[in-house]
Each structure stands twice: as structure tokens, then as C-alpha cells.
TrEMBL record:
Name under which the protein is recorded: Putative D,D-dipeptide transport system permease protein DdpC
Protein topology in the membrane: Multi-pass membrane protein
Transmembrane segments: 62-84, 130-150
One of the record's GO cellular component terms: plasma membrane
Region annotation (Disordered) ranges: 1-52
Compartments, as annotated in UniProt: Cell membrane
InterPro entries per UniProt: BP-dependent_transpt_permease
UniProt superkingdom: Bacteria
Keyword tags: Membrane, Transmembrane, Transmembrane helix, Transport
Gene name for this UniProt entry: ddpC_7
Signal peptide (residue range): none
Length: 160
């Protein structure tokens, strides 16, 4: 890969070793801009310069990732199913039509039907609320137990 032109009109390729012309500008370690430092143990070394980032660039690019956007959309749809399932389907998830058992997915039944003819999409949408409730309860219990154990373990012993 071509890095750029040299003062004499030639071209330099990107390599890991420095050019002989620039060797005099480099520090003891061979890294440009390296500062001599003292490291633990009395040895002297060099510290590599840190890379600088533009302010705010990480937060903006994090929200532009397609995987993140898709994940957020799926979570929002599931929360919508849990809060207002009737907006997404008008079919009753409990009643079935025996003549339509094991119907493959199509326009009438998006996920198909089960052994008793119940619409699987309607059952999924209406079941999302119960799944979300179970998740919230499990997370609340885990937070309570973890916080309690953490607080007890950080308390100083009173009687030894």
C-alpha cells in the first residue's frame, strides 16, 4: 500500500520498519513521538503515544450499526406485543378450528396452526406479555438477591 511521496519525488511503501531518513528523528525505541519514562524496577523505557479519538464519535457510530438497530426494533415489537396484543392480531389465541389443524403458514395464519387449529401467531403475540412479566420478575429477584449478598459481603465484621 502506498503511503505517500518522498521529498525527492520517490514513493514509500507502508512498512513496519522506519525509513533510514527518519531514523534520526525517532526516540530510543524507534517509535516516533515516544517519550522516555521510568518503569517499575528501575529500567528506563518508552511510552507509546496514545491514539486520540474525536469527541462523541463513538456514541454516534454505535447507534448507526445495523445489528443494533435491528435488535432494538425486535425488542420494541415484543414490548408492543406484550402491552397491546390486539393491535397486532384480532384472532383469539384460545379458540381453534379443528378443520384447520396443522395449516402451514400463509396469509390467513402467519405462523400456521397447531394440532387443535389455534393460530400460532396469535398465541405468540398474546404470550409475549406473560414472557415479559416472567422476565421482569426474574430480573427483580436476581437484583434483590445479588444486592443483598453484595451488601452483606461488604459490611465489616462486628464480632471476631
Amino acid at each position: 500500500m502506498i503511503r505517500g511521496s518522498l521529498p525527492d519525488g520517490g514513493w514509500a511503501r507502508a512498512t513496519s520498519s522506519p525509513s533510514p531518513r527518519r531514523k534520526k528523528d525517532l526516540g530510543a525505541s524507534g517509535a516516533a513521538g515516544a517519550e522516555p519514562t521510568r518503569v517499575p524496577g528501575g529500567r528506563s523505557g518508552t511510552r507509546e503515544p496514545r491514539l486520540r479519538r474525536r469527541a462523541g464519535s463513538g456514541a454516534v457510530t454505535a447507534f448507526l450499526r445495523p445489528g443494533l438497530i435491528l435488535s432494538v426494533l425486535v425488542i420494541l415489537v415484543v414490548i408492543g406485543w406484550a402491552l397491546v396484543p390486539t393491535w397486532f392480531t384480532s384472532v383469539d389465541p384460545i379458540t381453534g378450528v379443528p378443520a384447520e389443524k396443522f395449516t402451514s403458514p400463509g396469509a390467513a395464519h402467519r405462523f400456521g396452526t397447531d394440532v387443535t387449529g389455534r393460530d400460532l401467531y396469535a398465541r405468540t403475540v398474546h404470550g409475549a406479555g406473560l414472557s415479559l412479566q416472567a422476565t421482569v420478575i426474574a430480573v427483580a429477584i436476581a437484583m434483590f438477591v445479588g444486592t443483598t449478598i453484595g451488601r452483606l459481603s461488604s459490611a465489616p465484621p462486628r464480632h471476631l
